[in-house]
Amino acid sequence: MNHIEFMKELESLLQGISKEERDEALLFYQNYFDDAGTENEDDIIRELESPRKVADTILADLKGTEYTEQGVKGADEEQKDTPTVRGETVKQGPKTSTALKIVLVILIGLAAITFAGPLVLGALCIVFGLVCAAFGIFIGLVVGAAAMMIGGVALVILGLTKIFSVFPIALATSGAGLILFIVGLIAMVGCVKLCMIAFPAMVRGIVYVCRLPFQRKAVS
Amino acid sequence: MVFNTGAALLDAIVLAVVSREDDGTYGYKITQDVRKALEVSESTLYPVLRRLQKDECLEVYDRQFDGRNRRYYKVTDRGMAQLKLYTTEWKNYSKKINILFEGGVTV
User: Which residues of chain B are within 8 Å of residue A75 when distances are taken between CB atoms?
Assistant: First the structure.
């Protein structure tokens, strides 16, 4: 392989990159062969190993800097284009759209309210219902526990009224009443604690959800 | 060579080699000069030169030589600043390594 063949092959291997990069690389290696002189040509080609290896080195380096290269190119284009293209868009903006935009936004808003209003209202009602249900479940648990305690107390009192007539039954009844009262007390404590955890969490959750739309607006 | 030369060191070496010539120097000569000090394959230097050129550490110009165009590389002001930074960094680095190698004897 002589240096002309080498250069031809290198050129075909560099088809994938931009013309600027290819020309630069080819110029460098053309220069390289010219400066080395024909007497060193074989050594150089042996040193370079193959057009494939040279191409791979170039491609690998371009890949590594491809991002920055594009960045640089992008920046250049932007700089060139800013005075013309951007100016035009800026001019076009206020002329055509401001008034039209406001009218459109109002129209879209009205349409949205008429069509989406009932849907939104329905969704809000469902959410409200679910929240109430959640609160209700916890309140129900507390009330249930309270009812157990009251029932226990009532049983104890009932038992005590029979203490002089039917002693064993009175004892059994008031004993059962005490057990019921204790179980109710434990349930009460447990439920109240649960509510203390659950209610603030639920309230926080509701507040968070209510805030979301406003936060989004603030961000955008 | 036992130690491999990283990209930054290669950049520094190429900048140093090019900076020695006030009027700039060309690819083949740069390669030969670098290869006097360092075992690098001939194909590694083009990407280094191209990168330094893109980073505006090197500028290129073509000059007629022997009836053909020869591309010359020259270090820019920015390249000089970069080389200065590399030189300082290298001094610090090699000093520390020397201290380690020579068992705490400050050179």
Answer: none
B50 to A69: CB separation less than 8 angstroms, yes or no: no
Query: Which among A42, A45, A38 is positioned nearest to A6, based on CA atoms?
Result: A45
Q: Do A78 and A151 belong together in one domain?
A: no
User: How far apart (Å, rounded) are the C-alpha atoms in residues B16 and A216?
Assistant: 55
Domain boundary among A33, A63, A86: A86
ipTM: 0.86
From chain B residues 44-63, the ones with a CB under 8 A of any chain A CB are 44, 46-47, 49-51, 54
CA distances from A220 to A105, A213, A214, B14 (A): 16, 11, 10, 50
pLDDT in tens, A109-167: 888 878 887 888 888 889 889 888 988 888 898 899 899 889 988 888 888 888 888 88
* Residues spanned by the domain of A52: 3-86
Domain end (from A61, A86, A111): A86
B8 close to B43: Cβ distance less than 8 angstroms: no
Q: Tell me the pLDDT tens digit for each residue of A2-13.
A: 888 999 999 999
- A144 shares its domain with A80: no
Secondary structure letter of residue B59 according to DSSP: E
Assess if residue A110 is contained within a domain. no
Contact yes or no for B47 and A61 at CB 8 A: yes
For each of the domains in chain B, give its residue range(s) and CATH number, in order of start: 7-101 (1.10.10.10)
Contact A44 B42 (CB under 8 A): yes
CA nearest B54: which of A61, A115, A54? Answer: A61
